[in-house]
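User: I'm new to structure prediction. If I give you an amino acid sequence, what do you actually give back? Let's try with this one:
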Amino acid sequence: MNQGGALTGSLKLRELADKHYAALVDELTAHLDSELKAARDKAADEVSAAVAEVSAKERLQAASQVEAARAEGTLQAKEASRHAGLEARVSLSESLNQIVRRIRQTSDGFDVLDILLDSAATFARQAVVLGVENNQVQSMASIGLKDREFAFPLASAAAVSDVCQSRDPLVAVVSEQELSSELAEALADPADPQRKAYLFPIVARQEVIAVLIVCGEDTVPAAIELLSEAAGMKIEALEPPPTPELKPLPPSPGLVQIAQPAGAPAEAQPVAALAWTDLSPDDQKLHLQAQRVARVKVAEMRLYQADTLRKGVFEANIYGRLGNEIDRARAEFLQSFLSKSQTMVDYLHLEILRSLAHDDNKLLGPDYPGPMV
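Assistant: Good question. You get back a string of structure tokens that encode the predicted 3D arrangement of the chain. For your 373 residues, that looks like this:
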């Protein structure tokens, strides 16, 4: 009995120990599983954070590389643009220089107009040279108009008439009223009812002897105007000089007076009435040179100070806007011509009045000093 009871107690104790051990193992296992899961989650979080940090760095680095590439591309584009612009200016300058050299070397007025027309083809798609004489207009040559010829009264083309009167370039719409019916038909573009035509006078000795008309989207008006000026000066130089009567004029605003040049000795007397043939060959040459220089100086003002000139005309104060340029030209003209001949005329003043003020001395402004002689 006692042995059986002891055995039974021992078995119960062992069973209780096994249960306690099993519970302890389960609890330990659960704890280990929890710790392991926490460790895995922490490791996963650390890996994700590390990946995110690497990705952020990579994105930042990639963005930096893109920005650097974009800046480099912008810099290269600017450099390419600057280089292309420089090449274009050099090319234009060389082209203009060659054309002006050809004009200068020719010895015939018709050849001058042919060169002008050929050069216009470089800067416009269509061009025609119209001769003007006795209020009649006659085509002399053309490009891009299938060798068509035109002849019409000057009064039938308002734009051509205006150019002949003002002796200034003009932009007009291609229409029957502005260019005459036949010329407007030849220059018209059905796809562009408001197509523009650029008109440039060729002026020799204060008279429009021809008009160059060009059309085209790629027209370069400034270049063509410069060449038209050069053509007019060359034709003027080729023509025999007129025989004007040079005599003193009574003092009057806007008129030139032949008197002693500035800086002359007090005893110098005003020049008596003279004809062109009364001048010595040297004086004649100096007068012609003075006329050409005056035209070039004023043409440069019109070409390079166009916006400023327009403001001066609008304000009726051209001298107020172009005073520095006019004063420099006056000083050079005084030194080069007026101080060298008592018969000299202030051609610079005449050209300023004609080309800049359209023969209206009120547009020159109240501070304009007037003619130098």
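You can read the tokens as a compact description of the fold. Here is one thing that stands out. The chain has a mean pLDDT of 78.
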